[in-house]
Amino acid sequence: METNPARLRQHYEEALQAADQAIRLHPNEAEAYLDKGNALQALERYEEALVAYTQAITLDPGNSSAYNNKGYTLYVLNRYEEALLAYEQAIAVEPADDIPYLNKGQALCELGRYEEALLAYQEAITVDPEDRLAYYGKARVLRELGREEEAQQIEQQAHQIEQQLEHEHAAGE
User: What's the number of domains the chain is made of?
Assistant: First the structure.
């Protein structure tokens, strides 16, 4: 992936132009609004991204990515309660996706609702046992709850997963 900030910005500007063109050609296509929201989010134009994600949801209420991305945008704006609602909608639409559970856990942590966050991270792990970020999130919450020994065990699991994934990647699997 390109790391030059100016080049990245140009890439996202081009993606935004392409999404706007797709919307002009197909104004009822939810994916075009989702793409627009993603480009706007990458450009840190969060309020505009929210409008695009909301339009995608209006056109396709079964689009879990639109709910999840809307939630993330709300999270970035420190609107954690609203983010939680969006994550819950993403989960209701696609309960087999670990990412909304992970994001829900992060928002709950920001609200200091650690027991609920612990449950959200555990759900992410249940859905995807190789989601190392969920393990790290769970460890963070356990530390907040004063459960250091459990946190260390969970971090060890995360490290094992990382090593396994690195080994598989190196082996070309």
Answer: 2
Owner of token pair 């063109």: 21
Same domain, 70 and 126: no
Angle (CA) 48-112-96 rounded to 5° is: 65
Pair 89, 9 in one domain: yes
d(CA 166, CA 170): 6
State whether 77 and 28 are in the same domain: yes
Tell me which of 94, 116, 142 is where a domain ends: 94
- Could you list the residue range(s) of the whole structural domain that residue 74 is in? 1-94
Indicate yes or no: pTM above 0.70. Answer: yes
CB-based contact 69:51 (threshold 8 Å): no
Structure tokens at 110: 């920001």
- Per-residue pLDDT tens over the stretch 111-134: 999 999 999 999 999 999 999 999
Q: Where are the alpha helices (DSSP H) in 26-147?
A: 30-42, 46-59, 64-76, 80-93, 98-110, 114-127, 132-144
